[in-house]
Amino acid sequence: MTALLTAEFRKVLSLRYWWILGIAPLMVGLFCGALTLPVARQLEYGFGDGVAEAVAAAVGISLALSLVFLFAAIFGAVATGSEFAHRTIVTTFLTTRGRDRVVGVKLATVAVIGLLYCIVTELAAAATLVLFGGGFEGADLGSVAKVLFIGLFCALMWSLIGAGLGLLTRSTTGSVLAICAWVPFGELIVSLVLHGLGLGTLASYLPAQVTWYVLFSAVSLPEDVTLEMTWPLAPLLLVFWTVVLGGLGWWRTRNADIV
Which residues does 164 contact at the CB level (< 8 Å), separation at least 6? Predict the structure, then answer.
């Protein structure tokens, strides 16, 4: 198992896409850390004390983390889908005892890289926040730490969602297009349709919206803001979507006639 895991990491790290996909969230994290909190602290003069932390978390950290989740999912889809596109999965299956071991190692590798994206982006955002934003003075460090920890959890879930989609579709292009279309646009359109049909409650159960509820439920929001979903339902639903897509991808890879 260790040899298989080592081989999988070497395979991923020998290609360039794993670090190329991490550049976008890293750059956004750098700029968000440098600019968001200083701007938010200026808003406190107009909206009162305590606004800066909420705005910085809602706009700055959340924007950087949202890109981390998106690119972690894309990485997962590319890492698994490309194996089928280039037929390298056939050799791996023929030289390994059991497909479950191969799929398990792939998901573990994708999860580690997804967490790495999030850790690097969070460290970059925190470093620029300290250097250019005056640090965390006046901020609730407990809430900041909670948001960063939840970011790791969501990045892990989305990397596995992407990997599951890649295993399910067995197509890199199809999986990446599906993620890029669904996260920023598709889910919004479906949500609007559901609200139009009087089924707006169902919209809050969709994966991207669940992720926002997981993230924002850890932030101290103004008293007049009420979330439709909080802990522990929100993270459980995100785990549910991960298990569904990851499980379907695993099931199809395990039973399909690939070799």
Answer: 76, 80, 107, 242, 245, 246, 247, 248, 249, 250
The full DSSP string for 54-102 is HHIIIIIIHHHHHHHHHHHHHHHHHHHHHHHHTTHHHHHHHTSS-HHHH
Integer Cα distance of 2 and 17 in angstroms: 24
Torsion (CA) 129, 134, 137, 142 in degrees, nearest 10: 0
Tens-digit pLDDT profile for residues 86-135? 778 888 888 878 888 888 989 999 999 999 988 988 888 777 776 765 55
Rg of the chain on CA atoms, in Å: 20
Q: By C-alpha distance, which of 193, 11, 12 is closest to 117?
A: 12
Helices (H) and strands (E) in the chain, counts: 13, 0
pLDDT given at position 255: 84
- Given a contact cutoff of 8 angstroms between Cβ atoms, the answer to whether 40 and 137 are in contact is no
pLDDT digits (tens, 9 = 90+) for 149-186: 888 999 999 999 999 999 999 888 888 899 988 888 88
Positive or negative torsion for Cα 104, 109, 113, 116: positive
CB 29 within 8 A of CB 71: no
